[in-house]
Amino acid sequence: MLVADLLRLLSRLLTASHHARPEDVAAAITRFAPLVNAREVVVYLVDYDQRQLRPLPGPEAPARAPIAVDGTLPGRAFALTEIYETRDEHAHRLWVPLLNGTERLGVLEAVTDAISDQHRHDLPLVASLLAELVMTRRAYGDAVELTRRRQPMQLAAEVLWNLLPPLTFIGCDIAVSAVLEPCYDVGGDAFDYAVNGDILRLAIFDAAGHGLDASTITSLAINAYRNARRGGLDLAEIYNSVDGWIARKHPHAFVTAVLCELNAATGALRRISAGHPAELLLRDGKLVTEFVAPTALPLGLGRRFGRSPTVTEETLQPGDRILLYTDGVIEARTLDNEFFGTARLVEFITRALADQLSAPETMRRLVHAILDYQDGQLQDDASAVLVEWQPTATSGSPPY
């Protein structure tokens, strides 16, 4: 496709999207398939479990069945964010990762009579635009959300998922990737982050209790954290602000948390561990240390007991990774009451790093390993966040 033709296609897609409902996106894609020399173009979105790729429905969309992420080439395209091709006697198919920035949304399927280099060049650009359309249209209806759900979502989980930032951010110097389970019934676990200039501000929360009560407390913690952060408070002041709000509004509750700030230009890390499991520092594919924990009482208890937080400082080396997690990760257990444990967690992460998996794929596989370990029935919420620091000036090129 000539540049002018591609620009016309992108322009027509954008124009069509201005008045589109979420379910109209699939129809628009179908109508524009001939413009990319394809018989059919289909968008698949990954479900909340990240186990299936589910076709986005629409009045004119071709009929498709869900596709497993594990054990299929389309799933591999999603997992590794690479383009793959399949062929049979009837058609050739190109499977293109569907990315919103760096967050994996699903895959794009293009059915053609023959795959050309032009397809390989043009379709990733089209997929990028379609990802943007999916994300902007999703706010105007429920079609995108319903496509991603394999079962009804409990209210506590609904509250938290609507608060969370994207699961993945990858910049020039840092990568952040997170997971939450059980995704349809999570209550007290959550995370938040913001990248402002060279500073990554990150927090992970775990409210005591379960269900809607825990979700309500965690929601307050997230919003209080954002409010304090955006108000320009320093790390200790942020702790004090969130701690105070929880103590006032939920005097019998508390939230364990890690609040941290990473300077992506220097590798300087400042952190507060508020009654939370210690973060793991991994270097050269091996566990280096567990950070000091706790350095403060859980949020909601600090002011009540007159305890000020201690901010500790660490200096990272290029390539370092930090894993933050809630106790539900290591406390997942078999029917024989054998815990998943820290040693098994470290072994899993180091093996994934040896396999050179990306941060989001490492976390996807980790949460599935935890679920499988407990036969798919978690006793507690299990959440984790992986942070990678790889300064561009050191590597000479963007690391991710």
Automatic annotation (TrEMBL):
<dbReference type="InterPro" id="IPR036457">
    <property type="entry name" value="PPM-type-like_dom_sf"/>
</dbReference>
<dbReference type="InterPro" id="IPR001932">
    <property type="entry name" value="PPM-type_phosphatase-like_dom"/>
</dbReference>
<protein>
    <recommendedName>
        <fullName>PPM-type phosphatase domain-containing protein</fullName>
    </recommendedName>
</protein>
<feature type="domain" description="PPM-type phosphatase">
    <location>
        <begin position="169"/>
        <end position="389"/>
    </location>
</feature>
<dbReference type="InterPro" id="IPR052016">
    <property type="entry name" value="Bact_Sigma-Reg"/>
</dbReference>
<keyword id="KW-0378">Hydrolase</keyword>
<dbReference type="Pfam" id="PF07228">
    <property type="entry name" value="SpoIIE"/>
</dbReference>
